[in-house]
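Any chance you could type out some protein's one-letter sequence along with its backbone structure tokens so I can compare the two?
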Amino acid sequence: MSNFFSAKIGKRQSLSGSRVTQLVMKISRVIFAIVLLALLWQLVDGEQAIQLIVSANPLWLALAALALAMQIVFSALRWRLTASQLGVRLDKKTSIKEYFLSQAVNQTLPGGVIGDAARAFRSRSQAGLVASGQAVFLERMAGLVALVAVMFLAFAITAGFGIIDWPGWLLLALALFFALTVLLTGAFWVVGKTSKGNVQKGIFSIVSATKVSLLAPSVRWTQLSLSLAIVISNIAGFTFVAWAIGSDLSFVASLALVPLILLAMLVPLTISGWGIRESAAVILFPMVGLAGVEGLAASFAFGLVSLAVSAPGVIFALSTGKKRESENLRANSE
């Protein structure tokens, strides 16, 4: 009996310790983002960046918001198509609402994937959690691959034709990144061929799901079109924000720079990439002849516009919660 109670107490202490660790990590990410933004404020004249944001052209901001909203809609349609191939049926309205909610959660909570995980959980009823999880994962991976592909193509064209004189260290870093990507892909293939048991089953499941949902002849061109539309919408959104604050960032330069700035947000050190995104913009903008303060202002304004665009997701969550509450009250009264 004493062993039973000891095990119970140990389990509770373990859960309590885990929650404390998670809370510390969340607070650390917030603090790190604040520290980064404070350093950038001092390095590139934060007051001027605020002035650029305050005096931003509202028309370009509205167009940026439209582009980012369309990016969410296109992403929802890509998720719906991917999910349907795996047996998860979603109507357009539901998929769009869910994606707006997912984006709102991802941009306000640490980790950047909590909204995606919740989206997979809520759509599990038809084909199970594995299929719904694969649909969300593969849809996001398709977007990442498209973003990286556009970035490499833009750098290759601008550097190859002498359109932009990129620093050698940046091109070397990109070459190493490309080599690492190829190496990891090869390692994944080798592990899939040589492993056994659950590991092989898991890899086989992902590969099969990829072939069905992304590469099948009936969907591959639609998937490609949606992914390109999403990438272009994202890049356009950032470019329009840069133009709103008075920057002369060209769209050609944006095709290379913006994906790199957005990829920097994947570093899981802050909430939704705040601080890291701005740091990347401050470093990269001078490479195309623009001031670092413009990069700070454009990146910060881009984050604010993104938050505003995802706001309908919060409204959807609140309205859904009230609807469920009223349904429960009605059921209890009956």
Residues 45 and 185 are 42 Å apart (CA to CA). Residues 2-43 form the longest helix (42 residues). Confidence is low (pLDDT under 50) at residues 324-334.
